[in-house]
Amino acid sequence: MHLRKFTDLKDGRRTAWLLTAGPGLASVKPATTGGGMGDVWDVIVIGAGSAGLPLAIKAAERGAKILQLEADYRVGGTLYWSSGQIAGAGTRLQKQHGIEDSPAEHYRDAQRIAHGSIDPVVLKLTTEHAGPTIDWLMDLGFAPAPGTPVAGEAHEAYSTRRYLWGTQQAVSILNVLKPVHDKLVARGKIDLRLQHRMTGLMTDTSGAVIGVRAATPSGEQEFRGKNVVLASGGYAANAKLWTQLTPKVPLCSYCNPYSRGDGLVAARKLGAVVDSGDKFLCTFAGTRDNPKDPTSGTFLLLSPGGQSSRRIWEIFVDHTGKRFMQEDHPSIDYRERSLLSRKGMAMHVVFDHGIMQNASPIMAEPSAAFRARFGRNPNFVKAKTIAELARKLGVPAANLRKTVTEYNKAVDAKVDRKWNKAFLIRRIDKAPFYAIKAMGITVVSPAGLKVDKQLRVVGKSGKPIRNLYAAGEVLGFARTSGDSFVGGLSLTPALTFGRLLGEHLLKW
Ligand SMILES: Cc1cc2nc3c(=O)[nH]c(=O)nc-3n(C[C@H](O)[C@H](O)[C@H](O)COP(=O)(O)OP(=O)(O)OC[C@H]3O[C@@H](n4cnc5c(N)ncnc54)[C@H](O)[C@@H]3O)c2cc1C
Fold this sequence. Notes:
Elements: E1 2-7, E2 15-20, H1 25-28, E3 32-33, E4 40-46, H2 52-61, E5 66-70, E6 86-87, H3 92-96, H4 103-113, H5 120-139, E7 163-164, H6 171-186, E8 190-194, E9 197-203, E10 209-216, E11 219-230, H7 239-245, H8 262-269, E12 274-275, E13 283-288, E14 297-299, E15 315-317, H9 332-340, E16 346-352, H10 353-358, H11 367-372, E17 380-383, H12 386-393, H13 397-413, E18 433-441, E19 448-449, E20 456-458, E21 464-470, H14 477-481, H15 491-505
The chain binds flavin-adenine dinucleotide (FAD).
Residues 46-52, 69-72, 77-79, 81-85, 197-198, 231-233, 254-256, 258-260, 262, 443-444, 472-474, 488-492, 494 line the site of flavin-adenine dinucleotide.
C-alpha cells in the first residue's frame, strides 16, 4: 500500500492521503478477515458519497447489517465538488408553486434534450423516483435555493420548472444526509471504515460475489457480504483508465481525486459490461493548471451570463488560427459541441491589453493572480505582436492576423456578420496580446457498468452477476444523461438509486 499526498483541487488548502494499491500491496501484510459486527455483512457498500450515503442510511433503517468502506478520510465524495443541481417531477416543491409535472414528462423531456441517447431502463427508474428523492431530502431539512425550481440553468432548459439546488451547491445535500448517517454510525447501525479502499471483488466457484478485498491502514483485508454495492463514483481522476475507456477524448478533469474507477476495474474483472465511453460531451471550458497533468483541470469563466455573469470580451480560435463559433451563443449545448468538434477539443482564447485591463478575469481569482499566470504557465501566453502570439500558439500567423483584423472590423461596425457575436465592446489591437490554451473540461465520466432495472450489474452473458449491484457515476454519465448534459441527471440518479437500493431493491 502506498500513501500518496494530494492537494484538494477545489480549495487548494486541504491535503489528504490517498491510499493506493501499489506493487507489493499483498506483501505488506497477508489478507486478514475484517471482523466487526459479524463475519458476514448483509450489505457491503463501496463508497460513502452521493449514492453510498442514502443507500447506507436507508438499508440501516431497514435493519441491515452494513459495512461501508470509504477510501477517503471523510464521507461525502463528489458532494464536496458538485454544483448540486438536481431534478425531479411531481415534487412537493413543484406543487407549492402550482407546477404540473409527471415522471413521464420528465422522461420525454430528458430524452428530447439528449436526442434519445439515455439508457431507457435507467432513465425510467430515475424519473419515476427522483421526485420522492427530492421530497425525502426536504424532509431531512434540505432547503432549495430561492427562485428554484427553474426550467434551465447551466444546461439546456427543460420544458417545465423541475430543476433546483441548495445555496451551498451539493454541500447543501451533504449537510442533511451526513447528520443522519453520523447518528447511524454512532449507534453501530452502519460499520463505517474510512481510508479503506476496495481493491477487488471476491467470488465463489459459481461466480457469485461473496465479498471484497480492501487496502486498509493495517494492510489488505477481506470482508464477506451477502450483497456488494459499488457506489465508488466515476473515473475522471484516473488518466490511465480514461485513455482505455474514452480513448478519443483528451482529458482535462476537475473532479474528486478519488474518482479513480476502482468499481469499474473490479467489476470488469468479473466480466461486467462496461460501455458508452465514446458518448462524451465536454463542459465549456477549462485549462490544465499543470500542462502535463490531465487531472489538473481548472475552470475558465467563458460562459456568458451564468453564475459569474461575465461577458465574453475575447475571441476563440482553433488550431488554424480561425474563429469557429459564436463565442457568446446563448445555448451551452451549442458551445460545448462546437468545442468538442475542434481538433484536440482545444481552442485559444485571444485578447489584448485593453481587455486584460477592463474585463473581469477569466478565472475566479483576483486580477493580480490571473495576470501572474502569463509567462509562468505554458497554457497562458503573452506576446508583443499578433504574429508572435501565433508563433507561440503554433497557429498560422497570417490566419490569426486576418481573424483579428476581421473581428476588429466587426467591432467597429457593431455587427459580426460571420459569427454573430453579440458583445462587441472592444477591438483587439493593444499590445501586449494574450491567449489562453483552453479545452473542453471533464467533470463526469461517460463509461460505466450496465445494470438491469434492479440495479444488478450485468455480465457479458447478459445475465446479472449474482450479489453485485451498482449506483451512481459508476454506471457512467452516458447511461444516466446520454451524450448531453441534462439538468441534474448525474447527481439525481446517484441519490435516487442509493435510496432505492437501501429502501427495497437489496434483499438479505
Ligand atoms: C464540478 C462538478 C459539478 C457537478 N455538478 C453536477 C450537477 O450540478 N448536477 C448533477 O447531476 N451532477 C453534477 N456533477 C456530477 C455528480 O455530482 C456526480 O456524478 C455524483 O455526485 C457522483 O456520485 P457517486 O456516489 O457516484 O460518486 P461520489 O459522490 O464521488 O462517491 C463515491 C465515493 O466512493 C469512494 N471510493 C472511490 N473508490 C473507492 C474504493 N475503491 N473503495 C472505497 N471507496 C471508494 C470515493 O472516495 C467517494 O467518496 C458534478 C460533478 C462535478 C465534479
